[in-house]
Amino acid sequence: MRRSDSFKTIGIVLGLCAVLLAWRAADATSDIQAAQEQRLEIVIRDSAFLLTQPAPMRLGVPTVIILRNQDIIRHGFTSAMLSGILIHGGGEGIAVYGKGVEGFYVDPGKTLVIRLTAERPGSYTFRCDLHPQMKGEFFLLEVPTA
Fold first, then answer.
1. φ/ψ (deg, to 5) at 62
2. Quick one: pLDDT at residue 11?
């Protein structure tokens, strides 16, 4: 093997190592982000909101709200908690991003994922604007960090 071929081989191996290290670092970053966010899943069934694992939401922590409409009709999801904060909502090929999002609609059998970081503590009602009897409540807690 010629000396120039050896340098090419070493260069290729070092390049592959750099790519693998960068890939693992990006993967570790996404694992850390996932560990730091809180997730709430709400199932809509029989014209009712059902929290799969009720838990208080922590203020200032990135939050993922997963809405699964297992009902046979379309439902809305709105809350005063959404007003004035940056929202990213999407599902089934549709995405909404920005401030001033007042609510969402979820068709039968569809899932909507909402990402936000709540900024104000308190108790916030969420409801279906199409079916006024459907209501639930979020509790946003300010938990001091050590």
1. -55, 135
2. 44
Assess contact for 22 and 29: CB atoms under 8 A. no
Specify whether the CB–CB gap between 93 and 144 falls below 8 A: no
Per residue in 49-81, pLDDT (tens digit) is 998 887 778 889 999 999 999 999 999 999 999
List, in sequence order, every beta strand (DSSP E) within 2-121.
38-45, 48-51, 57-58, 62-69, 75-79, 87-91, 94-98, 103-106, 111-117
Note the pLDDT tens digit of each residue in 91-104.
887 788 898 888 99
Bridge partners (DSSP) of residue 69 are: 44
Residue (of 84, 89, 87, 86) closest to 67 by Cα position = 89
- pLDDT confidence bin for 117, thresholds 50/70/90: very high
**Nearest one of 56, 64, 65, 67 to 34, comparing CA atoms:** 64
- From CA 95, how far away is CA 97, in angstroms rounded? 7
Tokens representing 35 are: 């560990």
The pLDDT of residue 95 is: 84
Handedness of CA 61, 88, 85, 30 (dihedral sign): positive
End-to-end CA distance of the chain: 60
Place of tokens 């959404």: 82
